[in-house]
Structures are given as structure tokens and as C-alpha cells.
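Case study.
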Amino acid sequence: MDEFDLISRHLRKIASTEGALGLGDDVARLTVREAAIVTTDCLVEGVHFLPQDPIGTIARKLVRVNVSDIHAKGALPGEALLVLGWPKDRAESELVAFVEALGDDLGLWGANLIGGDTVSTHGPLFLSLTLTGKALGVSPVWRAGAHAGEDLWVTGRIGAGWCGLREVLAEVSGPDAEHYRTPALPGPGAARLVAAHASASMDVSDGLLGDAAKLAEASGVGLNIDLEAMPLAQPDTAVMDQITHGDDYQILFTAPVSNREALLAQAGQEGLKVTRIGEVTAGRELRLLSNGNPVPLPQKLGFAHE
Amino acid sequence: MDEFDLISRHLRKIASTEGALGLGDDVARLTVREAAIVTTDCLVEGVHFLPQDPIGTIARKLVRVNVSDIHAKGALPGEALLVLGWPKDRAESELVAFVEALGDDLGLWGANLIGGDTVSTHGPLFLSLTLTGKALGVSPVWRAGAHAGEDLWVTGRIGAGWCGLREVLAEVSGPDAEHYRTPALPGPGAARLVAAHASASMDVSDGLLGDAAKLAEASGVGLNIDLEAMPLAQPDTAVMDQITHGDDYQILFTAPVSNREALLAQAGQEGLKVTRIGEVTAGRELRLLSNGNPVPLPQKLGFAHE
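After joint prediction, the assembly is written out as follows.
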């Protein structure tokens, strides 16, 4: 199985837009123009997913970890480039299933594959996607931009990534196992909500507390986070684990208090779950509150793939 | 050593443009606009480079295999995103040297690092760069576009990649060992030449004959290639190996006969070596000629990293 065979036989089927040139050139045309952004995230076997995970869910996770970054900026996905380091001992039937799921999921989020590179390796499965996006507003919404007094919001549920991984490792079919394998994104409605209302925004991919600390640092503000308000995936189990581990792929954002009503109305129209989990403060401190009282922060706020 | 440490300590130093946002967000601003193109190429330890290759030359090779694609389209590099799969057992001092060489070489070709992703793995060193470019002309020059009767040109010397690899494997310090490790690109002068004159163009990275076959196929033409005209790196050694193996990173292009004089004049001004190695024909056949007589084509025209 050589590089050209891989590309021509499987990837061409899902690269049908004009910019892709049928994957028949060394470079692709980039059509995204104004307010363009780009992100790249990789997934490696044994680090970001388990060797035994179904190949289709790995493909969808690769797409979604990148789409999540684009949506969090109040933007919609545009064009994608794939780098595929395929282990020599993985079956070609798996490759076919991978490409089909990748094409499906890119299509689901409105992204087009325009190019990439493939290599057959002796190492673990190594996947990387570069994804462009176009901001829905005049500008993308960055991590910096939060102001003291604003509300802190989060979409969906927090902790589903951690709870799901526990279920997968224990080989029980719990409610969040599927989310761990193929994150359920809040979707383009969340991108529209961010574009319309958010002052600062990022996706929650490495643990809510750690990501909140990053947003606060980038904005030069503090945050009070209300533990009781947190929309936990499984409220009756390890709370600190759920708010410090990764793979949630929800969106954490700040917005002026004056937007609160309009924001909730728009979320309702979009069928989007959003929860106000705290407020932006003038200090630089990240504080976790329970019934108004400070709770000691865990030593490790977030999760890094080491 | 975790992901955030890697990024913040080493990569921020070389990501100083506005679009990079100091690598402090999940996405980067893409500033390239008109006639924009994008490419992504990966390098994997044991496949594209040897484990014992100096880390600085690996970084430069990563940059150059991508810059080569951009130059071949008559374009100049713009913005870069790095995916770095760093083996857990590689020293951090190597990482510092890698980032320094990467920054140096991106700067040399006018490219700016704006983002990326890093992961620490148990697999081989896995590197991928996504590079945007901006066409110098109205449009990039694609593989398709050659017309019967045109000249076929190549920059520099062909076979240096293969000769260099032989030297490196034999541990002799031949003239091309350094080219294998850090390809000497023809440079931006070649991009200007392509933009001004070429009808079709691509870089020679997988063996001249195989790449010529791809250009011919994309253009729907045939090619007569004159073996005597070929600017071989080492004319007295295995000729067929030199024209069928990879890592040359020269530019193969076609241009109207009427451009011949102006093309040579511009190449002279740029200090650029170009050689007319054949002509475009109306058939679909790739023919290798020696003193006007057909030479049987080798079974394998190019080299794929399997």
C-alpha cells in the first residue's frame, strides 16, 4: 500500500470541492477570505484514543476536536487538510472505514477536505487535521476579551468526557461512553450564540477549571465559578474529576449581563443548553465557590496529554 | 514535559507575528488573502529521515519540503502551523535545537509560525507542517496546464537526494550528503521564474520520472525527456536511480518556446540554474530519449514512502 494508492483510492472520494483539485496537485486552493482563522489538532493512538476504539469514532473525534475550536471562536468550519500516519499493521478495510467516517463527519459540520499527506509508519496511528474557519461576526471571538462584571457561561454538560472514559475503561455501557469516543458537540448554534454575544470564548477540551484559568489569564481578569450551578454530566459522582479532565468539547464563554435575556432567548431558539456558571471579576484570581463559600482548588486544574 | 510547557517555553519564541496571538489561543488568524494556497507535508522518523540525523537538519527539511511545494506553484510562503509528535525518550535539549532551527529556516523563506499542536508519544518522531502561500501571479501554477510543443525545464541538479542518501548510509562525506539532510532549494527566484513563465509546474520530490508522469497526466499531454540533457548530480553513477528516487526538491515546469530567451535571461539574473530537458508532446506518452532514441522506462518511475 503506497502513498499514492492511499490518496487516490480512498481520499479522492471525499474531496470533491473545487479547491481540492481532486487531490491531484501538491497544494490546494484556499478559498476562505475575510475573518479567516485556522487551527490544527492531532490525535495519537494510546494518547488521545484507545487502540481498540472503533476506527469510525476515531475519525469523527479527529474532525470534532478541530470543529470545536472553530465553533468556540464564533466561526464555522471551511476547509480541511488531513495528515494520516497509518500503521503498517492496520487493515486496509479499517482505512476505508476511516475515510468514510471522516468524509461523513466533515460534511456534517460543513467542512471540505482539500488536501493532506499520508505516510505508512511503524508507529502508532497518528492523525492530524488542519481546519480553517470563517467568523460569523466581524471578528473571531478570542480567549482575551472578558471584562469584570460579565457572566460566565458554558454550553451542554461538563464531565461527560471523564465519565465516558471511565465507562469505556470499565467496559460498561454507561450514558457517556459514546461521548468519549465521538464527542457530541453543541454545534453551529453555539457558534452563532458566541458570535452574537460573547466577549471571550474557548472550547473546554482539557478540563473546565484549567481552561477557565487560561481564559482568565488571556483576558487579564479573575473568575468566580459556582460549583452548584455547574451542569455536571453525572452530578452524583466525583465532581472534581469531572471539572478537571478533558474531552468535554463544550464552549466556555463570557458575555455582558445586559445580553443575558437575549442570549437565553437565542439559545432557546437554537435548542441549545447553556448555563451561567459564574462571573468575571476584577482580580486575577480563579475562585471556585460552593453556596457562596470558597472551595480549595484542586492541585491540577486541567489535563494535558503527556 | 507537558503540552503547554512545550508550547510556551520553546515555540512562543519563534511565533511573533500578529496572527499567531503568541500561540495563546486555540486558533490563529489567517492573513493570506488573494490567490492563496495551502500545503501540508509530514516527515516521520525512519521513513523520511534517519533516527540519527541531526535534529536541526530534520527541522530544516520539514520546512523545505513544504516551501518547495509553494515555490513550485509560483508562490511565496506565508503562514505555518506545526504538529509535533515528540518521542518521550528524546532529550529536551534536542527540542530546543529543533525549535531554533525551525524558526531560523521559516524566517529564511519568509514564513511565520502561527499555531500548531504538540503531543508526547511512544512512537517515532512525527512532524507535520501546514504552510500557506500567496501566488506571485494572478493564479498559482498547477500541474495541469502544459501544452504540446512547449519546453520542459528543471531547476538545479537531479539525483542529489539519492546520491546523498547513499553517502549518508555509507557514512562517507560525499558532495550530496548535506543535500539529503537539508535540501538546498532553488529558492524564491525559482518561484518568480515559474510565476513569470510556466504553464505547468511541480516540485521534484518523489523522483523526476514519476513526477514528470504526474505532470503529464494532470495536463493530458505526453513528454519527451532527453537523458543527455539531464543535469545529474553525479553524471558518472547510476543514472536511472538518480532520476527515479526522491528528495531532490527541484522544480519541474513547462513553458512556451517563445518564452525561452526571456526565461533564460531571468534565470541568469536570479543566479538560477535551469536546464531544458525535453518537450511537451501531443500524445499521452512519457518517453525517455538518449541521442534521440527511445530508452526503456524503468518499472518504477518514482519513489513512494511506504
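Observations recorded in class. The mean pLDDT of chain A is 91. The first strand of chain A starts at residue 28 and ends at 29. We will return to this complex in the next lecture.
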